[in-house]
Amino acid sequence: MGATPGESDERLFAAYVAGDVASHEALFRRYQEPLQRYLERMLGDRAAAEDVIIETFLRLHRHRHRFRAGTSVRAWIFTISRNLARNRLRAQRLWGWLPLTSADAATTAPPPEPQGEVRERVAAAFAALPAAQREVCALRLLAELSLEDVAVTTGASVGTVKSRLFYGLRRLRAHLGDLAPGGARR
C-alpha cells in the first residue's frame, strides 16, 4: 500500500490495522516531534520523553484493534502518551521516598545539558504552572492539538480546557512577556 504525505491519520491507522507497516512508520514520523515537545515539558527530561514515545507506539501496536472508529487517532496517541508519562511521574515520586534511591540519583545524575537563558525561562515558566494548566498548555502549544483533542486527551470538557488554557497562558505571559518582540508585557 504505502503511505502518502497528505493522508489522514485515520486512513493511515486503518491501513496499518489492515497490515501496512509503512503506515505505522508514517504515523510515528508524524507524531514523534510533537510528542517529544509535549513530553519533554511534562517530564522535564529528553531521554524519558523518548522512552515514552517508543512505549506509546508499542502500546498503539498492541492495542490497535481496540481503536474506536470515528474518534481522533491524534487524540488517542496523545492520550496513550499522557497516561504513560503520568505513570512514570507517579513512579518517580514513589521511588523518591526511598532514601537510597534519592541519594543515588543525586550523586549519579548526569550534569544538566547547557541551555540558553530563554529555554531555561520557558521551562521554569511551564514548571511554575499548576499541573492541569501545564498539561493543557503543553498539549495545545507544543503538541498543537485542537481544543477538542485536548479535551479528549485529558478527559476534561472543552469548556474546562478553555479555562485552563486561558489561565495558563495568562501566567506564561506574566512570566515571559518581556521575551515578546519589542519586550513589552501585555
Question: What can you tell me about this protein's structure?
Answer:
With 186 residues, the chain is an all-alpha fold. The protein has helices at residues 9-17, 21-43, 46-62, 73-96, 99-108, 117-128, 131-142, 147-154, 158-176. The protein has 2 domains: 1-99, Rna Polymerase Sigma Factor, Chain: A (Orthogonal Bundle); 115-179, Winged helix-like DNA-binding domain superfamily/Winged helix DNA-binding domain (Arc Repressor Mutant, subunit A). α2 packs antiparallel against α3 and α4 (73-96) crosses α8. The longest helix is centred in the middle third of the chain and has 24 residues, at 73-96.
What attributes does this structure have?
186 residues, Arc Repressor Mutant, subunit A, mainly alpha, 2 domains, Rna Polymerase Sigma Factor, Chain: A
Structure described in brief:
With 186 residues, this protein is mainly α. Helices cover 72% and strands 0% of the residues. The protein starts with 8 loop residues before the first helix and ends in a 10-residue tail after the last helix.
Radius of gyration: 18 Å
Q: pLDDT under 50 segments (min length 5)? A: 96-114
Helix share, percent: over 70%
Strand coverage percent: under 5%
Number of helices: 9
- Reported by name, the CATH topology of the largest domain is Rna Polymerase Sigma Factor, Chain: A
